[in-house]
Specification:
Strand order of the largest sheet: 3-2-5
Structural class: mainly beta
Low-confidence stretches: none
Order of helices and strands: EEEEE
Distance between the termini: 35 Å
Helix content: under 10%
Radius of gyration: 12 Å
Oligomer: single chain
Shape: globular
Largest sheet: 3 strands, antiparallel
Length: 64
């Protein structure tokens, strides 16, 4: 098991981010597993080296 550091540019006005991940292509916020983070960048730990992972990241502010 290992880890992957996911990094992205900050979005002006964003209060938080949600990383949605899955092991199948085409992950969306509707079907991905969510991880809530406050700042850009996250170490996704305990991943299998033999598995491919897919990610989508959304930004949220007080307006949604």
């Amino acid at each position: 098991m290992g880890g992957l550091f996911i990094d992205w540019d900050s979005v002006d006005g964003a209060d938080s981010y949600t990383i949605y991940w899955a092991t199948s292509d085409g992950v969306t916020p509707d079907d991905g597993t969510p991880i809530e983070v406050a700042d850009p960048g996250y170490l996704h730990e305990t991943l299998s080296a033999a598995q491919t992972y897919f990610y989508v990241i959304t930004a949220t502010n007080l307006a949604g």
